[in-house]
Design brief:
Distance between the termini: 23 Å
Largest sheet: none
Shape: globular
Helix content: 40-55%
Radius of gyration: 15 Å
Structural class: mainly alpha
Order of helices and strands: HHHHH
Strand content: under 5%
Length: 90
């Protein structure tokens, strides 16, 4: 993702571009949602269901991270563990 951002003129640094922790949190969210969703549903129904689920909310990661930790340089550049609540197991 970092390379893609750069290939289209984006910047990856301490304040913009790819964010490792947010990406990994949402990957976990999607996996968890799909694990409890009927595999036979059409893709559009799965996507719509995810967008309507708590995991589809933009602020979902803030259930587990303080803003200071989630939006830190450390969290942008690499994985950091949550500091508010434990992430759901997948």
């Amino acid at each position: 993702m970092r390379r893609f951002n750069e290939s289209v003129g984006g910047v990856n640094d301490e304040t913009q571009g790819y964010h490792e922790t947010i990406t990994q949190v949402y990957v976990r969210a999607v996996r968890g949602f799909l694990a409890r969703t009927d595999a036979g549903l059409p893709l559009a129904a799965k996507v719509n269901g995810l967008l309507e689920a708590p995991e589809g909310r933009r602020d979902w990661p803030l259930r587990f991270y303080s803003p200071e930790r989630l939006f830190s340089v450390e969290a942008r550049l690499g994985w950091v563990d949550p500091d508010v609540a434990v992430l759901p197991e997948v």
